[in-house]
Structure formats: C-alpha cells, structure tokens
Design brief:
Elements: H1 3-9, E1 14-19, H2 27-36, E2 39-42, H3 48-51, H4 61-72, E3 76-84, H5 90-93, H6 98-115, E4 122-127, H7 140-145, H8 148-160, E5 165-170, H9 178-192, E6 199-202, E7 205-207, H10 214-222, E8 227-238, H11 243-262, E9 266-271, H12 281-284, E10 288-289, H13 302-310
Parallel strand pairs: 1-2, 1-9, 2-3, 3-4, 4-5, 5-6, 6-8, 7-8, 8-9
Antiparallel strand pairs: 8-10
Helix pairs in contact: 6-8, 10-11, 11-13
The protein binds (3S,4R)-3-hydroxy-2-oxopiperidin-4-yl beta-D-xylopyranoside.
Length: 311
C-alpha cells in the first residue's frame, strides 16, 4: 500500500511530500498525502519572504496551517528553510554590516524555529549556498559575513530547537563535480570547528534519463556519517511527453528509491509535489512537464509503480 509505510518497514524515517496553501484545501491532494506520505515540507510558507516580510514583523498564518495539518495527522514536519538567498525580502538583501546581519539572521531563526520548536523533525538551515562551479553563491549573507554566516545559522538553530536535525540542502548534488566536492569540504570544515550539523539534503530536481551517477553521489554524501535525505525529488520530462519517456521515468523513480535504500544513512525521501497539475516545473522549466507520481487529474502514473516496486 502506502509508500511511507513500506519505506518505514525498511527502517527509514519517512517517504514525504509537500503541502502549501494552494493545495491544503484540495481533497484529491490531501487524501493522497494522508494515505501515501509520512512527512510534510511546506513548499513556500516557511520561507523568509512569507514569514518576515519586514524586519521584526512575523507572519505565521500560512506556515501554521501547513504545520498543523502535518502534526495533527502524525506526519513528520521538515522545516524549509531558514537562510536562503531566494524568496528573500529586499530589506535583508540591503543590509551591509556584519553586526546587523548577524542579529537579523539570529532573530529570524529564533522566531521561526522557536515557533515550531519540538514539532520539526529536521530544518534545512541553509539552502543553496554554492554555485555549480563550487564557489560560494554571492548572496548578501556571503558578501557581508563570508562563510561564517553558515556557522551563525547552524548555531542559532541548534540553540533554539536542540531536538531538530539540522541540514545543509542543495541541488545538483546528484552528479560528480565541483559542487558536491565543495559541499563535502564545507561539511568537514563545519564539523572541525564544532558547528552543529546533522544532515545533508540532496534536492534531486532531476531530468528523466539523466540519473547515471545518482546513487554513487548519494553514497558519497552518506560516507560523511551524517544523515542524508532526498529532499525535493521530481523527475521532469522534456516535452513532448510520450510513453517511452514515461516508462523511463518509472525506472528513474525506482532508481532513486533504491539508491536511498542502498545508502544506510539515507533517512527518507520527499517528493516535491503530488500532482503534475501543481508542480513548480510548469512555470520554472516550461519546456519540461509531468515530473511527479500523479497526473494532472490526480491519477497514479507508472512512475508511482517505479517508487513502489523498489520498496
Ligand atoms: C519552489 C516552489 O516549489 C515554488 O512554488 C516557488 O515559486 C519557488 O520555489 N529549491 C528549493 C525550493 O529549495 O524551495 C524551491 O521551491 C525549488 C528549488
């Protein structure tokens, strides 16, 4: 039956999915979440622009709705995300002195992680800090504070919610190259200076037929000894979608699910959406389509069987 129950039976923590205000009242979505998935990430509601649009002015309405939906149904909650250059309000990007930015980061984390203290299984503490070439992204955080912004964020998160697992999260960690190397090197530096970090999230926004190195790279993440999670899985198809590509997508979902099972430290998988109807892929990658396990009409695709057969 449910993907979550089967992955748990293999000793892992969850098979999860996302929820937000655009889907929380859509019964077709929530019924599937209820029966198939055991963890919830808020697609947008916990991001900085949604939670602190002006300095010191916090809005938790949407985030509460997602958090309450999950916790009242016994689902794990993944917090996403505390420090990220995107969906970041302009008032933060304009800060140019170290003390102010440090206080702003600490206060944001205290308020956000404090509100959900004890309810969050894991926080994506920092998201997408590297460029694909392995250089740090030129965000306001890196420009003003250098690499130390990452230590500041992890330390603040640990102090406010000591029970939450603390993750670094990024995309394009699914093939060999400078980005995964830089991520692994950063993790070692953080640990060597005693900064608390528990896990590495591989977003896994993938393209059908393009997964040759996926498991090998997940193994490398697991060799750190930290927890590993696949945090935002989707596998998009170049238009036009046809039956061959859908069959390949089925094999690809099987491959990713097996990869997690083959990495002992892989605690869980989160798919970035239920129905193709609501996927971010439509607007972000207009020449791609159909990345998820349920189609535009909430019918199961063969991709579902790919995930299921691996379990
Ligand atoms: C995406 C959401 O799915 C969209 O609704 C939003 O418009 C943009 O952000 N990496 C992340 C996620 O960490 O937060 C992003 O989510 C997808 C890429």
């Amino acid at each position: 039956a449910a993907l979550d129950a089967k992955l748990k039976a293999k000793g892992r923590a969850y098979y999860g999915n996302i929820l937000d205000t655009n889907t929380v009242n859509t019964a077709q979505v929530t019924n599937i979440l209820n029966s198939e998935f055991g963890a919830i990430t808020a697609e947008n509601a916990m991001k900085w622009d949604a939670t602190e649009p002006n300095r010191g002015q916090f809005n938790f309405g949407n985030a509460d709705q997602v958090a309450n939906w999950a916790t009242s149904r016994g689902k794990l909650l993944r917090g996403h995300t505390l420090v990220w250059h995107s969906q970041l309000p302009g008032w933060v990007s304009g800060i140019n002195d170290r003390n102010t930015l440090t206080q702003v980061i600490q206060n944001h984390i205290n308020q956000l992680a404090g509100r959900y203290k004890g309810k969050v299984y894991a926080w994506d503490v920092v998201n997408e800090v590297f460029e694909d070439n392995g250089q740090f992204r030129n965000s306001v955080f890196y420009r003003v504070l250098g690499e130390e912004f990452i230590d500041i964020a992890f330390r603040a998160a640990r102090a406010v919610d000591p029970a939450a697992k603390l993750y670094i999260n990024d995309y394009n960690l699914d093939y060999a190259g400078p980005k995964i190397n830089a991520t692994l090197a950063l993790v070692e530096r953080l640990r060597s200076r005693g900064t608390p970090i528990d896990g590495i999230g591989s977003q896994a926004h993938l393209i059908v037929g393009n997964l040759a190195g996926f498991e090998e790279q997940l193994v490398r993440l697991g060799q750190t000894g930290l927890d590993v999670a696949i945090t935002e899985l989707d596998i998009r198809i170049a238009k036009p979608v046809d039956s061959n590509k859908l069959a390949q997508q089925q094999r690809d979902y099987e491959l990713v699910t097996r990869a997690c099972l083959n990495v002992p430290k892989c605690v869980g998988i989160t798919i970035w959406g239920v129905s193709d109807r609501n996927s971010w892929v439509d607007s972000t990658f207009p020449s791609y389509d159909s990345p998820l396990l349920w189609d535009d009409n909430y019918n199961r695709k063969s991709a579902y069987n790919g995930a299921d057969v691996a379990l």
